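Lab notebook, bench 4. Still working through the backlog of constructs that have no structural model yet. Next entry is a single chain of 429 residues. Request: give me the structure tokens for it.
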Amino acid sequence: MRRFRDRVEAGRELGERLATQYAGRADVLVLALPRGGVVVGREVAGALGAPFDVLVVRKLGFPGQEELAMGAIASGGARVLNDELLIQTGLTPDRIDAVVSRELAELERREALYRDGRPAPVVAGKTVIVVDDGLATGSTMLAAVQALRAQRPARIVVAVPTAPAQTCAKLERVADDVVCLRQPYPFYAVGLSYEDFSEVGDEDVRRLLEVHERTVTFRAGEVELEGTLVVPLGARGVVVFAHGSGSSRFSPRNQFVASVLNDAGLGTLLIDLLSEVEEERDLRTRELRFDVELLSERLLAALSWVAADARTQELSVGVFGASTGAAAALMAAARRPQDVAAAVSRGGRPDLAGSLLTEVRAPTLLIVGSLDHVVLDLNRQAMAQMPQTEVKLETVPGATHLFEEPGTLERVAELARDWFARYIDTASR
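Model written out:
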């Protein structure tokens, strides 16, 4: 059985498995068990376009044999004990309470450290996906599920890259669903399912949690639009995403690219360029997705919001456009040259920007799949109409229009990351 390269790869594979049922849903919340589970959970949350946080759980190690789990405790006061083990060993209540007290102090320390004053997320009525990097006995996950049940979520899904079959069966009795990518037999240890199972420290967890999402709203003429803002601590800039062709801020592809930019220290704002009413209309008529003038006006409103908001007003700004959103991005860059430091198009239609292409000043990267022949020709034509700026066309080998082939979307994200890092780092607002 092939091992995962590391927790990031495991999280991406787990996110892909979960995406078919949970991606883009407003009721989904991803909670990860520290520490290693936070690395996996971050990737899962990015794939689903879902909010992300931690659920702190502590294993109760048997005195003198701490690796042997006699139970676990979790945030909210939940406690799970292995009664069969305790009966067999005859451990006294006083010794059990001593272990619980010690681990409770550590649990409270970690909660204070990881949250840094942030309140715990509300789980009532949510579909909560609980993630770890793997399970052995499952005692910590059992405590997590018990703690969550008391908060009345609509549904609890346990999701892990690896676990023994018997542990998965045990969790199926308490969770609403269990998703496990691999169930090795015989099962010896979680770490054996990974090539790299390096230790994850408290500071790693804090760093991953500092990059958390906020839903924001802004006015664009007569409509109010929503966006998802992520600004890492010490961010060097922020990239505004313009979706197109019926997509929204919940696009799994753009969510993935955004997560790569976040890891590189860049903020992201993924916005809906159409209101809910307009989206419903566009699903029937397909007319608004090609109204690049309207999309550009909405993007200009988003840029105005970025320039005014305290979290982003000091940051240099880039724009990232996909499909018809690429035309909107370049039109906005042409109209606000002082506000846009760099632009990237993914499988875009920059040609739809028309005569405004000649006025673009922002360094522009056009990314197209090598097998997307029609769009590739259109990008070459657009490139020839952009004499006032540095413009580069990158073709991703073996990729079609949606970059669905293995490794191709990762290449898009790398190219975008490097382009923005290069030009945003040298720009100032």
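Notes after review: The chain has 13 helices and 16 strands. The chain has a mean pLDDT of 89. Flag for follow-up if needed.
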